[in-house]
Amino acid sequence: MKKRSLKHAFATTLFSIASLAMLGTSQLAYADDELVVYSSRKEHLIKPLFDQFTKETGIPVTLQTGKANALIERLKAEGERTQADIFMTVDAGNLWYAAQQGLFQPMNVDRIQAKIPAHLRDPDNLWTGLSVRARTIVYHSERVQPSELSSYEALANNAWHGKLCLRTSKKVYNKSLVAAMIDHDGATKTEQVLTGWVSNLAAKPQAKDSQVLKAIEAGQCDVGIVNTYYYGRMQDKNPQTKIKLFWANQNSYGTHINVSGAGILKHAQHREAAQKLLNWLTSDTAQKQFGGANKEYPANPKIPLDPQVASWGSFKADDLNLAIVGKRQAEAVKLMQKANYK
Amino acid sequence: MKRSALKPFTLFSKLALWALILLISLPILSLGFSWHRIDSGLWQHLSDNLLLELLGNTFQLLLGVAIGTGVLGISLAWLVTRCEFPGRRWFEWLLFLPFAVPAYVLAFVFLGVFDYAGPVQSFFRDTLNMQGGLDIREGVWGVAFIMSLVFYPYVYLLTRSAFLAQPPNYTEAARSLGDSPFRAFWRVSLPLARPAVIAGLSLALMEVLADFGTVAIFNYDTFTTAIYSSWVDYRSLETAAQLSTLLLIIAATLIALEHYQRGKRAFHSGLPRQQTRYRLQGVKAIATWGYLSGVLLLAFGLPLIQLSLWAYQSFSGWDPRLSEWIGNSLILAVFSALLTVLIALILNAVIHNHPLSRLQTFGIRFTTLGYALPGSVLAVGVMLFLFEVDGLLDGGLWFSSGLFALVIAYMVRFMAVAFGPVESSFKTIKPSISEAARNLGASPLELFKRIYWPLLTPGLLTALFLVTLDILKELPATYLLRPFGWDTLAVRTFELSTEGLYEAAALPALVLMGIGLAGLVIIEVLRARAEKRRPISH
């Protein structure tokens, strides 16, 4: 029948696939003299910084963004063949896991340790925090008095029944918050808190912190827990907002913080340039911008804050080493799933 | 089909066929190897706390979307093919448009507009002083509704072609025997179109099985939630892969059901003839109009308006790289879609022309399963598989980096989408046509040029359109496997929307929809041309 055309089609397909493979391999030469950063931080947040680094040092940076877990799998699979020099991500859990999987090599902390406090760094110098994000309580100032608030744990009290909004437990920030709580309060107490939270929920957990804020604004609930930079963005859009920040757990272990951070990859081909980039990212100039760009806190506590961030007041931060937070995340998820926290 | 018409295989064809099948199915098969190590503690936890509820949720959602896409797809297809009303021809192709809207984009638009804090409910509360509110994320309804709006085009598209291909004399006979239009539809048209309806439904449902983005926005937990939890929370890629193979079994069951219900019956149609359409007037015409515009408004108009508003509010100059993203998106989508459709064409031509062993038939069917896998799992599967291949070669990154991995991932994921339309257009070719042509002395080349190509073109174009749009919208595989510098519109939309910056994500999302619209116009023009060149005029 049409065997001949079929044969042609087979041949065309195989040829196309072969040429594709060549196209694919030709990509390899592309990044030879560039510093390659795998990042789960979104491009629009960090590219301006890298551009400035390139301008100052002449070292070009190629950025490959992706989801943290997918990038970690990619790095594991690439092994020593990887072209990446630095892995940058948010959340202590991701950094801890990357370290635990042996993806990093120790960095030279001579300059970094003077800038970044120890609890924001890996004990073995495999990664360092670059910016700090605080996760704390927000409330509607017309419906809630700050005197009614104290800690994350207290939001499990009956008084908040039908008034609490939370982001989904699937988000890594909540996993870390609960992981820290397990370390401070123990698993039994934490499970009780989680069950209390769930029974206090005014609505099914939101997919995003910004939605938690919107729900409070609209009156669906009165209190919630968010990262402060989401609050900052809301303030930008609506300076008259009735929502206020409350620094949680000031009378106990302090407000929960997390980091975004980075480490040099074990199989980095541009080790020196990578070290240079990390030194630069922890330098005063970069730190000022790093926090300011996303309304986060600089990892270096001596850097003056962005005026808007400073207006939220100072607070006592939890100084639990973040590697511990990372280690306890799986335990935290188990508890949250048991407590039916969606 | 008469067996005498079928030619046996040459060795070359056999090897080539298996090469193609393996290329597409090995990344899927590699998931099966995950079963060598079982984390029983994690399985225990999952089955104690999650699995039962998640399976229940998944089946509710499948049922909801099956009903939603079925009702929408069939009714719309029937209205535009069997009725005549002002604007029918416009509606006929406009109704494809919702397919250009990524499901997760429609989800965040709906949530933004209709949720408790959104403008609609705020209006009722603040201006009309109505108390309370509705959480549209509760239950299965919201998610099922949104998915039905985005996925109904699968059913619509295939059913419409089936209705068009039905010889009108069947329904005319039913009508002349006194059946009402509805009865004629129910007893004649619909049963004849059943394979098309089910093929459309199974595509829609596989898409539901694989979805993670849409359900995540509504925080509606499905089976994919367990897969992601195993991977992201418990760092057990094995358990995630094991759970994925269960998802494949559900998908395989869907496909087997489709085959079973089709049985050995043949659905070859006669030659399409001009349809006589019921002329709708007055109330009926207005009601039809209202229905069609309502669907279009919700599925395409609303996101268009909301995204435009957001894009306008947040507009701070064009990103100079926008044209680069458009270029990347288009190159990837069109090139991969062409390849995917080409392979689907070859596989179907093989099925059509050769007696196949059970194993061969099974192998070909297996290649369509990738559509039910969550994109990220599939992407990791492809990646790990290609690293293995590279490792066997010489330890370089030959296949696993660059575009190759990405294109393979697209082919594995969207083979089912290409396969369906191509398969159904092969089904409209009665073996007697090609036999007759051969008896009249047509050479194979002539046969191909004058019979197959014209009859297949509409199906090929449909497949090309669907796969191209699907690849344009695809996120997880593109995100993980794209080579340096190959950002696409979908990647940008996602990156901006995850930070809660829906406003900033609006522009790339709009461009994505615009490309979908342009693609639709092109395909329609090509299709119209192909129709004119049909071998037998009517």
Descriptive notes:
Chain B: It comes from Hydrogenovibrio thermophilus. Chain B: One of its GO terms (biological process) is transmembrane transport. Chain B: This is Iron ABC transporter permease. Chain B: It is a multi-pass membrane protein. The complex is a heterodimer of chains A (342) and B (538). In chain A, strands 1, 2, 3, 4, 5, 6, 7, 8 and 9 form a nine-stranded mixed beta sheet that branches. Helix content of chain A is 44%, strand content 15%. Chain A has helices at residues 3-26, 43-57, 68-78, 92-100, 172-185, 187-200, 209-218, 228-237, 271-281, 284-294, 307-310, 322-327, 329-338, and strands spanning 35-39, 61-65, 86-90, 128-140, 164-165, 223-227, 243-246, 256-264, 297-298. In chain A, helix 5 (172-185) crosses helix 6. Chain A is globular, with a radius of gyration of 23 Å. Chain B has helices at 11-29, 40-49, 51-82, 88-94, 103-114, 119-126, 141-165, 168-176, 181-210, 213-217, 223-233, 237-262, 282-314, 322-353, 358-366, 375-393, 403-427, 431-439, 444-473, 476-481, 489-498, 502-532, and strands at residues 83-84, 278-279. Chain B has a two-stranded parallel ribbon with strand order 1-2. The longest helix of chain B is centred in the middle third of the chain and has 33 residues, at 282-314. Residues 1-5 of chain B have low confidence and may be disordered. At the A-B interface, helix 1, helix 2, strand 2, helix 3 and helix 7 of A face helix 1, helix 6, helix 11, helix 14 and helix 16 of B.
